[in-house]
Design goal:
- The structure holds two protein chains of two kinds.
- Chain A has seven helices and no strands.
- Chain B is mainly α.
- The N and C termini of chain B lie far apart (55 Å).
- The chains are: A mainly alpha, B mainly alpha.
- At the A-B interface, helix 1, helix 2, helix 3, helix 4 and helix 5 of A face helix 1, helix 2 and helix 3 of B.
C-alpha cells in the first residue's frame, strides 16, 4: 500500500464519518460545522486527484460562502432548532432503507463494470491543469457558453434571493 | 496510485448519506445540508473521471465548476425561501408546511 492510498483511506473515512454526523446530529449548528469538515475532506480528495483549482474553489466557495450561509440561516431560524421534539421524521427508517438500497444498487452496478481497477496515467510533463481549465472555460470552441450562462444563473439567483428574503415592512 | 473504484465507492457512500439526510430530516435547513452532501458526491465522481480518463479533455473539471455555480444558486434561493417561510409561518419544520397538501 502506497502513502497516497493510506492518505486516501484516512481522509475518506474521516469525511464519511463527518457526513454521517451532518445528517444525524441534533444541534443544527453542529451539523453545519460537520458539513464544513466534510467539505474540507472532499477538498483534500480533489488535491489527491491533481485538481488543485477545484480544491481551492471548494474551500473558497463551499466552505467560505455556502457553509457560512447555512450557519446564518440556522441562527435566523433558531427557535425551531432548539425544539425538544425529534429531529428525524416518523418514516426515517424508510429513508434509511432507500439510501441503503441506493448504495447497494450503485455497489452492484460498479461491481459489474470492468474499468474499476483502472489507475490514472501519470501527468504529462509540463501539464498545467489550471491553465488547461482556464483555456477550456474561455475559448470559443470550448465551454464559454455554459460559463456565461452560469453567470446569468447566479445573477438571477441573487435577485431572487434578495427579493424572497427582503422584509417589506 | 489509487484505483478508480475507491473514489466511486466513496462517492456512492457520500451520496447515500446525503440521501438519508434529505429523506429523514424534519428541519428544512437540514434537508438542504443533505442536498449539499449529494452535490459534493457527484463532483468527486466528475473530477475522478477527468483524472482517470483522457487528461487533456477538461469536460469533467468544467462540469464540476458548473455544478459549483448551480449549488451556490440553489443554496442562496433555498435559504431565502426558508427564511421567508419562517417569517410568515414561524416554522421551518417541513411537515408543518402543508398548505398545498390535499
Amino acid at each position: 500500500m502506497t502513502t497516497e492510498q493510506i492518505i486516501f483511506l484516512i481522509v475518506a473515512g474521516a469525511t464519511l464519518a463527518a457526513g454521517l454526523l451532518v445528517v444525524t446530529s441534533r444541534n443544527l449548528i453542529h451539523a453545519a460545522l460537520w458539513l464544513v469538515a466534510t467539505l474540507f475532506g472532499v477538498a483534500i480528495l480533489y488535491t489527491l486527484l491533481n485538481a488543485g483549482f477545484i480544491a481551492v474553489v471548494q474551500v473558497v466557495v463551499y466552505i467560505g460562502a455556502i457553509a457560512i450561509l447555512f450557519i446564518f440561516a440556522v441562527m435566523l431560524t433558531r427557535k425551531d432548532m432548539r425544539d425538544s421534539g425529534p429531529q428525524h421524521n416518523k418514516t426515517w427508517w424508510l429513508g434509511a432503507l432507500v439510501s441503503l438500497l441506493t448504495f447497494g444498487g450503485l455497489f452492484a452496478v460498479l461491481g459489474q463494470w470492468s474499468g474499476l481497477a483502472k489507475t490514472g496515467a501519470e501527468l504529462p510533463a509540463g501539464f498545467d491543469s489550471v491553465a488547461a481549465l482556464g483555456e477550456a472555460l474561455t475559448s470559443a470552441n470550448g465551454y464559454v457558453l455554459p460559463f456565461e450562462v452560469a453567470s446569468v444563473l447566479l445573477l438571477a439567483a441573487m435577485v431572487g434571493a434578495v427579493y424572497l428574503a427582503f422584509n417589506k415592512k | 496510485m489509487i484505483p478508480l473504484s475507491w473514489y466511486l465507492l466513496f462517492s456512492a457512500a457520500l451520496f447515500s448519506i446525503g440521501l438519508f439526510g434529505v429523506l429523514s430530516r424534519r428541519n428544512a435547513v437540514a434537508i438542504l445540508l443533505g442536498v449539499e452532501l449529494m452535490l459534493n458526491a457527484i463532483n468527486v465522481n466528475l473530477v475522478a473521471f477527468w483524472r482517470y480518463g483522457d487528461i487533456a479533455v477538461m469536460a469533467g473539471q468544467v462540469f464540476a465548476i458548473i455544478v459549483f455555480a448551480v449549488a451556490a444558486a440553489e443554496v442562496s434561493v433555498g435559504l431565502a425561501l426558508v427564511i421567508s417561510v419562517y417569517r410568515r409561518r414561524n416554522t421551518v419544520i417541513a411537515e408543518d408546511l402543508d398548505l398545498l397538501k390535499w
